[in-house]
Amino acid sequence: MAQYPAGMHRRRFLIGAAAAGGAAALGMEGKAFADDPIIPAESTASTAGLTTNSIGAISVTQADQQYPDMVRALNARYTAAPESVRVVDAPAQVAPIVTEAVRAGKRLTIRSGGHCLEDFVYNSETQIVLDVSKMNGVYYHSGTNAIAVESGATLLDVYEKLYSAWGVTIPGGICYSVGMGGHVAGGGWGMLVRRNGLVVDHLYAVEVVTVAADGTVKTIVATREAADPNRELWWAHTGGGGGNFGVVTRYFFRSPGATGTDPRQLLPKPPAEVLFSAVSWAWSDLTKDEFVQLAQNYASWHVANIGADSPTRFLTSFLLLNHKSNGQIGLVTQVDANAPNAQQMLDDYLAHMNQGVNVVQGALTEPMGEMSALPHFASPRRMPWLQATRFAGTTNPLLNDPTLRAEYKSAYMKANFPRAHAETMYKYLTSTAIDNPKVNIQLTPYGGRVTALGDTDTAVSHRGSAFKILWSVLWNDASEDAKHIAWTRESYEETYADTGGVPVPNTVTDGCYINYPDADLNDPLRNRSAVPWHDLYYKGNYPRLQQAKKKYDPKNFFRHSQSVRLPAA
């Protein structure tokens, strides 16, 4: 049954609380931060880190009514039957649970927001799920002079707290309920990607519970400081992916170059207002040549405007290539309304997108995958930034429906589409083998400030890419799994048929995105290239990630089907 410490109630997280539920965060010399509570060394999992607003760690088992809701991912394909789910609401509660799992030889996985696109958390080998979703504080931390964000916090909650308290933000993702734990570690991005870079570009430090070779559980704070002996652990969490090196309990954000101790000056300010445009092209009006032209228009603009200091970096746009059964292809665009010539920038972009496409644009009216359920915008809408962020993240039934089943694949792109790539997409998006308006191939923005850093400055190795692609295939009924998975595989592998069925790093394509994991990349029947799955994700950074794995998880305690492997002896 669920176990609760006596007399405790649910913890509330208050913005600005300098010591809000922090762990005894061991720094480079093993000292606790001055503004963290000291946790006794012999604390148990159920009592560690208790404050007057903490419920402590809770164990949920199959005897508990809530158990079925706590052993499934957002993607309804993935469920598990663990012995227990351990729910924590303070960083100091994590280490005792990890210690227990290590001593008992139990397979432990970590859940933050539940959005992992593969079965890394919920699978048949899972024995303990460590659920950090209630560990969601956001507060200024004087010990690091940074804003601490606990790993269970979700994106919209973080945006609202950062903006309402200090008028700042981090350039994270779109979907409101994505958890910070995996999103940051995988090099997350969103609507401000071209304007402000990746979320990891503003990461100062990370607090991680690790397991040493002798089984000792340690809590380490690793920073980006050059003299920090644990800097490689920080680096590994700037694009190395979740579930590889330990349990992240907190991220600490401070932009490079930020000075002073005022939280209002530590992170970028978002746009005060944005211009939000949502337009569409009717499938019934498009020829194959016009479809190819539309895809190539999107690609050519992003390739031409990739520069870190491009005046167009204030514009981000998504081209949603929906299956023909949806009825339309959509284009969602956001521009910083205070950028120089913002309206003209938007007008020029929309004109570029229409070149060679003899179809009248209409308002986007139907569910559109990543940017679903948008309004009937006859013209761009000007709105405050947070309102636009809430709107884009919360009004999307496809992103937020926990009953949907899904399959995903990804690609980074350096150059425009070869015609064969675009024609293959057209072939499958017009195929009658499936009839599902929730199927699409999304072209998504990159470049701009992403390119201000090099491929080794963080673990994100695709900074020369101009845009990305996501195959997003959603359906309702388990009886249709085989049909939809087959469509996804066939369309993806045929698109990249000339490079072994995957987007290998070359002058056109540039590998895959770790936050859109795809277990098929491990399968030599699906990935017929000479490039292994880990080089598609990490390219030349993989050996360095392996060395971090060797140092911080030498027992390979934290693992899944695509976790970083220990280096060969």
Please describe the topology of this protein:
Layout: E1 58-60, E2 84-87, H1 94-104, E3 108-111, E4 128-131, E5 138-141, E6 146-150, H2 155-166, H3 180-185, H4 193-196, E7 203-211, E8 217-223, H5 231-236, E9 247-253, E10 273-282, H6 288-304, E11 315-322, E12 328-336, H7 342-354, E13 362-363, E14 381-384, H8 385-394, H9 397-400, E15 405-413, H10 419-429, E16 439-445, E17 467-475, H11 481-495, H12 533-538, H13 542-552
Parallel strand pairs: 2-4, 3-4
Antiparallel strand pairs: 1-2, 5-6, 6-9, 7-8, 7-9, 10-12, 10-13, 10-14, 11-12, 11-16, 15-17, 16-17
Helix pairs in contact: 2-8, 6-7, 6-10, 10-11
Largest sheet: 8 strands, antiparallel
Strand segment count: 17
Rg, Cα atoms, Å? 23 Å
What's the SSE pattern? EEHEEEEHHHEEHEEHEEHEEHHEHEEHHH
Termini separation (Å)? 44 Å
Return the average pLDDT rounded to an integer.
Answer: 90
Helical amount among residues, as a percent range? 10-25%
The structural class is alpha+beta
C-alpha geometry? globular
How many H/I helical runs? 13
% residues in beta strands: 15-25%
Low-confidence stretches: 1-32, 37-47, 366-376
Written description of the protein model:
The protein has 569 residues and is α+β, with helices and mostly antiparallel strands. It is built from 13 helices and 17 strands. Strands 10, 11, 12, 13, 14, 15, 16 and 17 form an 8-stranded antiparallel beta sheet that branches. A 5-stranded antiparallel beta sheet has the order 5-6-9-7-8. A 4-stranded mixed beta sheet has the order 1-2-4-3, with helices on one face. Helix 2 (155-166) packs antiparallel against helix 8 and helix 10 packs antiparallel against helix 11. The chain is globular, with a radius of gyration of 23 Å. Residues 1-32, 37-47 and 366-376 have low confidence and may be disordered.
